[in-house]
Amino acid sequence: MLSCYGKGIAMQESRLFKIVYHLLDKGQATAPELAEKFEVSVRTIYRDIDALSGAGIPIYTETGRNGGIRLMDGFVLDKVVLSGEEKQEILMALQSINLIQNTNSQTLQKLSAMFHLGSENWLEVDFSRWGNQAFDNEKFELLKSAIIQCKSMKIHYANSYGVIGERVVQPNKLVYKANAWYLKAFCTQKQGPRIFKLNRILDLEILDECFQRRHFPEPEDIPKAKSCQITLRFPEEMAYRVYDEFDKTQIQRQENGDLVASAEMPEDAWLIGYLLSFGTQVDIISPPYLKEAIAQQAKRIYEKNKP
Q1: Are residues 63 and 84 in the same domain?
Q2: What is the pLDDT of residues 190-220, one digit of tens each?
Q3: What is the dihedral sign for C-alpha 103, 97, 131, 163?
Q4: 261 and 285 housed in the same domain
């Protein structure tokens, strides 16, 4: 554990780096501005400036109406001020970006050589589904381009009822959540923010129309489909799928090995199909009306496919 003195030194070193980063970003700042930003006194800021100057950082102050604390023009942050851990974090971050952008940037190789560190291949990202690599990766690249360039897109989308429709959307962000990719976008037809599951985007095209990027509301402010709380019981041999699709906090293991899962799910045609996908390996505990809905749908399937 650090002593109070050790903690003080660590905090000062962290603040010194942050002051340099701030000046590199903003160009200049006054001592009162820095004092307010880092929650210290103006006297402490001046002591920090002296410490930075003594460490060889070309920092100086100018008096007068437009004066302030500056770094000498052309100054770049030397690699020696970064710890070994910080250098490794930079390399890992760059590697992640390269994977997401599906590129092989030389920046990673140059920094690896400059830091005298190897870049471990610790992460592999593949946006495609099994057997559908070309289209899924192309879809991701098109969406990424439209988001960065603020270009509208025309998409053909299959909703949760299986209805395929054409939408014109203003893409905002790609999100990975609950084992699936989603697109946050403003839908011009609905005149509001919507979330689209990437696997249901069947076709897409970037349009020439540009848009002004909008603030995307928090998830709780986005219109949602009607949902219900369901409780399901599964035999122990279905554990592989139960743990794939439910969080461990939603699962209770019974004394006989059965698994009881409870979660909020959309109350639509998707839910019926989802429950049918378990076949005879699921028992619907609640709500009771789902039992009847599943039985009727199973009967229709049998009548349609009976020999």
Answers
A1: no
A2: 888 888 988 888 889 999 999 888 887 765 5
A3: negative
A4: yes
Q: Are 73 and 103 within one domain?
A: no
* Number of structural domains found in the chain: 4
Asked if omega into 219 is within 30° of 0 (cis), the reply is no
Residues with Cβ < 8 Å from 117, sequence gap 6 or more? 84, 87, 88, 91
Q: Are residues 26 and 40 in the same domain?
A: yes
Which structure tokens are listed for 18? 């942050």
CB 242 within 8 A of CB 251: yes
Please give the Cα distance from 88 to 94 (Å, whole number): 10
**What is residue 134's three-state secondary structure?**
helix
Domain containing 96: what range?
80-115
From CA 48, how far away is CA 16, in angstroms rounded? 6
- Is residue 298 domain-shared with residue 232, that is, in the same domain? yes
pLDDT at 95 over 50: yes
Nearest to 71 by CA among 33, 13, 20: 20
123 falls in which pLDDT band (50, 70, 90)? low
What is the pLDDT, as a whole number, of residue 151?
92
Residue 123 in domain: no
